[in-house]
Design goal:
Structural class of chain A: mainly alpha
Strand order of the largest sheet of chain A: 1-2-3
CATH class of the largest domain in chain A: Mainly Alpha
Largest sheet of chain A: 3 strands, mixed
Radius of gyration of chain A: 30 Å
Oligomer: homodimer
CATH topology of the largest domain in chain A: Tetracycline Repressor, domain 2
Distance between the termini of chain A: 61 Å
Largest interface: A-B, 130 and 132 residues
Number of strands of chain A: 5
Shape of chain A: globular
CATH superfamily of the largest domain in chain A: SLC41 divalent cation transporters, integral membrane domain
Number of helices of chain A: 23
Helix content of chain A: 55-70%
Chain lengths: ~450, ~450
């Protein structure tokens, strides 16, 4: 808790210091302060700078070794903002400091013509590499993998391997040593620590683990992340159909993927689109991505209005019926949201297995019944306190309606995401709008059906 | 996508195979199959076994080296189920295969008396270690740290360090070499790779990074996770007030923390408690943790009923007013949920900085206005299609109400989580119930206020 406060405070202090220096055009001091700020922290700070401040600082950062680490941590809309206006020559020059992966990542954000002009300025080899990375689908293992990997032939001796390792320039990403056969196909993996602790004359083939878990470049990044998380790996190799190793997905990228996928699920379940950078977008764009769900909910509301209109005669005899519409809809909607959230998250974290669906639905029906009866009785009794003008059977009507709408809502909240998974639709996308809208309509319909049945029979 | 299907399929096949073998009491084959199944996969499989199947399998696993890796991956309720009935002697025997951390983790789940009887069976040194770990608060860095760490004095030479490293038994967790001074206080850190690539006669003090980012044992695990994620660390050291290193929090635990905290936020925002194992609980316990929010929503509904009751005379003159109650509440509730989800997730991922609150609120007001006017006009026009018997000004009333309730809802959805953060309450806990219930009440009140004002003045 203490640490948290400090960090938020540090961010504010740093932001204000940078602002002051920018106002004074104190370029030397700014450069010094940038050097003292970790690139990851600098990337966070950029969220709180204006466009002009961002440009001023980036002009300085662009010339530092630092820029690669900085850009990999920066949010997409900010990168787009910084690169959007720069001529292709400047971007191509900047690219000399970046890996092919980072280059591909940035180019994927730029408009098509600009991407092409930058690509044309790269040398042929680099161009081919970047284009290959860009050819993998969005959010695939191929699109997030690091291609600078260190492989050695399986007949290499341990002490030779260490010598080779010492020649490698990029140090941060070396966790494992990947081992290949004569065909250069991946055959095994050795942890750096096993390598160091092995007698120098041992062949790699004798100490390597040969049952290597790998993913394809087209594997969904979420799946790759799940594998790294499940087996506590530091990296997982990406291998093509032909058995050649193309790169690795490292645990630091996995951490980002897990967080980003959770954010997407959050937004999708609230019907707020799936753009995790929504806070950095303009009010118009923000409104645009939230419009579709609101439209679904609008249609649901209009349908509900129709249904209530059909039962106008009932409302005319007992106006008090109208007073309980919000609670009937609200209780159904809330228990439905609870059920769908539990199930959607359970699917995302692998806690809902296939073949377990019926058990889960049955359990949710039990929960719906328990809570429905409880709140049905509670509200039914409440209507007897004559604060609103009541029909004789209002308590019964309201109690039964609450109970049945909660039961149906918990059932729907469970079934809908399970069905969506079955037909290969992301449960998070459609659960929110679909479940809440249907529950609104069903709840109102049930209420008036129960009301008319009871008043007619009793 | 293909990979995902395969994995779900693998799980089902393995589960069925284990079941068949258990039915046949084929212990030898079961032991073989367990040996071939990764402990992490085994832990996932356990979610789908019955209590009896779990016990049968665990009796075999308990005697394998494997058991430590298996238990660290297993869900809490299952551990509790497996350990609950075992006598302290059996648990103490099992503990010989576990690290102090794992021991502390399991003891924390057991009832107090049982914990004490198991502790009494451990040797004095181990007992002290376990009790120290158990003394750290829940969900703190101290409670998840690994205490088996490898430190060396700063004057050690590189080749001596490598030799020391080779003597270490626990290999998986060695990513960094931590360096201490004469007082045994942490002074620096060296990556394994830097150690390997350094001339053998170099002192550690000359190659170590001396600006070590560390956390306190009482730091929230979420904060520790954020630090590891932000700086792409493989581990962060946990250091006490006195400067002594107590342990490390490793990236594989961080991955779990990030996922678990996201799950907790999901559940809390849906008012379904914060127990991420809710799917493994009984229907009663499940209902119990979902009851409080439903009660808040029930109170909100009752208040709404009161308010509508107060305007009974209006409904008597124009029953059609009742038909639009669901859409007014629904649109407000949905836009409010969108706003609060965006802000809560923004706070969790550090995208909402301090001092940015007013800007954010202003932006959400803009979004609320854009969408409110759009849907207000849309619904206002709709009421002119005479499908329900209308008052002359119904379109105006409904349109204005939708617009203002959406504006207020988006505003509340933004302000409430920001205020909760300010007063140090987890925004995820209270946002869901508080926002939706208030919006229900406010929406209904506004609707009838607008209706009565318009019918009286026009």
């Amino acid at each position: 808790m203490i640490r948290k406060e400090m960090f938020q405070h540090e961010i504010s202090v740093l932001r204000d210091t940078f602002r002051r220096l920018i106002r004074r055009h104190a370029k030397t001091n700014i450069t010094k302060l940038i050097g003292k700020t970790h690139p990851a922290d600098m990337a966070i700070l950029f969220r709180f700078f204006t466009d002009v401040e961002q440009k001023t600082l980036f002009n300085i950062i662009m010339d530092l070794e630092y820029v690669a680490d900085f850009l990999t941590e920066l949010d997409e809309p900010i990168i787009l903002n910084l690169m959007g206006d720069e001529p292709p020559q400047v971007i191509a020059k900047l690219f000399q400091r970046l890996s092919s992966n980072d280059q591909a990542g940035i180019l994927a954000m730029l408009p098509k013509e600009k991407t092409q002009s930058v690509l044309d300025l790269l040398n042929a080899e680099k161009q081919e590499e970047v284009e290959e990375i860009m050819s993998y689908p969005d959010d695939s293992a191929g699109s997030i993998m690091t291609t600078d990997v260190f492989t050695l032939h399986q007949n290499t001796l341990a002490h030779e391997a260490i010598k080779e390792l010492q020649k490698q320039e990029k140090s941060e990403m070396v966790f494992y040593l990947y081992v290949t056969n004569d065909d250069e196909r991946l055959t095994g993996v050795i942890s750096l620590r096993d390598l160091v602790t092995t007698p120098p004359e041992t062949s790699l083939v004798d100490i390597m683990t040969d049952n290597v878990v790998s993913v394809r470049p087209e594997t969904d990044q979420e799946e790759a992340a799940k594998i790294v998380a499940r087996y506590n790996f530091l990296a997982v190799p990406v291998v093509g159909v032909d058995g050649f190793m193309l790169g690795i997905v490292t645990v630091d990228d996995v951490v980002d993927v897990i967080r980003e996928e959770a954010t997407e699920d959050f937004l999708q379940m609230a019907g707020a689109g799936k753009d995790r950078e929504i806070l950095l977008k303009s009010s118009w764009e923000n409104a645009k991505s939230r419009l579709p769900w609101l439209f679904a909910s609008w249609v649901g509301g209009v349908l509900a209005a129709f249904i209530i209109g059909k039962y106008e005669h009932m409302l005319e005899t007992s106006v008090a019926l109208a007073a309980f519409i919000p609670v009937i809809i609200g209780m159904g909607g809330n228990i439905g949201t609870q059920s769908s959230t539990i199930v959607v998250r359970g699917i995302a974290t692998g806690r809902v297995g296939e073949g377990e669906e019926l058990k889960l639905i049955f359990k949710e029906i039990q929960v719906g019944l328990i809570l429905g009866i409880l709140y049905g009785v509670l509200l039914g009794c409440f209507t007897f306190i004559p604060l609103v003008e009541t029909t004789p059977y209002l308590g019964l009507i309201v109690g039964l309606s609450i109970c049945s709408s909660m039961l149906i809502a918990s059932c729907m909240g469970t079934v809908v995401p399970l069905v969506l998974r079955k037909i290969n639709v992301d449960p998070a996308i459609a659960t929110g709008p679909f479940v809440t809208t249907s529950i609104d309509i069903l709840g109102v319909t049930l209420y008036f059906l129960i009301a008319s049945t009871i008043t007619q029979t009793l």
